[in-house]
Every structure is written in C-alpha cells, then in structure tokens.
Design brief:
By secondary structure, the protein is mostly helical. The protein contains 2 helices and no strands. It has one domain.
C-alpha cells in the first residue's frame, strides 16, 4: 500500500505541488481504525498553520 501511495504522489500530487502546498505523510504505527483521525488532525494543522 505504501508503494502505491508513493506512486500516486509522484504521478498526480507532485505536479500540483508546483502551484500548491502539498505534503505526503505516512501514518507510522497507525492501522485502519486510527489512521483517519490521526492524519485528519495533521491535515487540518497543515491547512491552517
């Protein structure tokens, strides 16, 4: 899954980074039950520093 996510970042998100703020993060030690809320909080902090 991580490899597929990196491919997505390199193929789709990376070109958008030229005009927008983009960051790729992996939810280390998270699982399907915890990853959404953990990374959502990080995303909100990134969007509204």
């Amino acid at each position: 899954m991580v490899g597929n996510a990196r491919d997505l970042v390199n193929g789709v998100v990376a070109p958008a980074a030229a005009r927008d703020s983009v960051r790729f993060e992996i939810g280390e030690e998270e699982d399907h039950a915890t990853v959404f809320t953990t990374l959502l909080c990080r995303a909100l902090r990134f969007a509204q520093p």
